From TrEMBL:
<dbReference type="GO" id="GO:0045333">
    <property type="term" value="P:cellular respiration"/>
</dbReference>
<protein>
    <submittedName>
        <fullName>2-oxoglutarate oxidoreductase</fullName>
        <ecNumber>1.2.7.3</ecNumber>
    </submittedName>
</protein>
<dbReference type="InterPro" id="IPR029061">
    <property type="entry name" value="THDP-binding"/>
</dbReference>
<dbReference type="GO" id="GO:0030976">
    <property type="term" value="F:thiamine pyrophosphate binding"/>
</dbReference>
<dbReference type="GO" id="GO:0047553">
    <property type="term" value="F:2-oxoglutarate synthase activity"/>
</dbReference>
<dbReference type="InterPro" id="IPR051457">
    <property type="entry name" value="2-oxoacid:Fd_oxidoreductase"/>
</dbReference>
<dbReference type="GO" id="GO:0044281">
    <property type="term" value="P:small molecule metabolic process"/>
</dbReference>
<dbReference type="InterPro" id="IPR011766">
    <property type="entry name" value="TPP_enzyme_TPP-bd"/>
</dbReference>
<keyword id="KW-0560">Oxidoreductase</keyword>
<dbReference type="Pfam" id="PF02775">
    <property type="entry name" value="TPP_enzyme_C"/>
</dbReference>
<feature type="domain" description="Thiamine pyrophosphate enzyme TPP-binding">
    <location>
        <begin position="71"/>
        <end position="223"/>
    </location>
</feature>
Length: 270
């Protein structure tokens, strides 16, 4: 049958013409800046929880940072944590509630700066949690200061001439470090700035949550993101800047996918 003779109903399905909000997303207006990646990732997390039918079993831990109000937007149980301490809080929750699926949702300032010790040790222990890590290379909530992930030469509120190697050191590839830890089962880096990348990111988040259900240890999903207000760019230009500058330094893809390391190599030999 030729395309011009097909009924339009055979080409466009009615259900695809209407935005279908995930049931777990509340009706509250998000406070994020237009173009911010947080809203997209919130939707993906809500969709995954719905897909796996674990709404009543899931507990999120929200941090200090732009996503501090995440508990307002996804209708599950939440616990607030002090700055950087979300992995420690999630550890306690997961250990006393072994039937629950526990995840943290953190930015790069929260996770890779003040919370470095918490995230490294939680991943090294192999705590049965999911970590969603939003990396936009800047402190978004507090005025656009340099973060551990800020690129060399990148202009921020505290590096007006660009991040300098001698003064500020190297950007931190925290996800590469975490991939080396024996307690992690799944470590990946994704983005969510196009429909195609959002679908890949959703798949990665779903795998991470399934790992938590299967008690495979720590799953870590980094999402390279934009902060167009902090970067002083439009949403479109921020996406372009991210592709041209962040992706070469923070390449996409899985870094570890399987099981926690076998304990044999770590056992004391008599």
């Amino acid at each position: 049958m030729k395309l011009e003779k097909m009924d339009v109903k055979d080409i466009i399905k009615p259900e695809n013409l209407v935005y279908q909000k995930p049931k777990l997303l509340t009706d509250k207006t998000m406070h994020y800046c237009p173009g911010c990646t947080h809203g997209v990732v919130h939707r993906l997390v809500a969709e995954v929880i719905e897909d796996l039918d674990i709404q009543e079993k899931t507990i999120g831990v929200s941090p200090v940072g732009c996503s501090v109000f995440a508990y307002n937007y996804i209708d599950i149980d939440w616990q607030e944590a002090a700055h950087g301490r979300a992995p420690a809080v999630a550890t306690g929750i997961a250990r006393v509630n072994e039937d629950k699926v526990v995840f943290t949702y953190q930015g790069d300032g929260d996770l890779a700066s003040i919370g470095t010790a918490e995230i490294l040790h939680a991943c090294n222990r192999g705590e049965n949690i999911v970590v969603i890590f939003i990396n936009n290379a800047i402190y978004g909530m507090t005025g656009g200061q340099m973060a551990p992930t800020t690129l060399l030469g990148q202009v921020t509120a505290t590096t007006p001439c660009g991040r300098d190697l001698e003064r500020n050191g190297y950007p931190l590839k925290i996800t590469e470090l975490i991939a080396q830890l024996p307690g992690t089962s799944y470590v990946t880096r994704q983005s969510a700035h196009t429909p195609a990348t959002a679908r890949k990111c959703r798949k990665a988040i779903k795998k991470a949550f399934q790992n938590a259900i299967d008690k495979k240890g720590t799953s870590f999903v980094e999402v390279v993101s934009t902060c167009n207000s902090g970067w002083r760019l439009s949403p479109v230009d921020a996406n372009i800047w991210m592709e041209e500058n962040m992706f070469p330094f923070f390449p996409m893809g899985d870094m570890k996918d399987g099981e926690r390391d076998a304990p044999d190599a770590y056992l004391k030999k008599n």
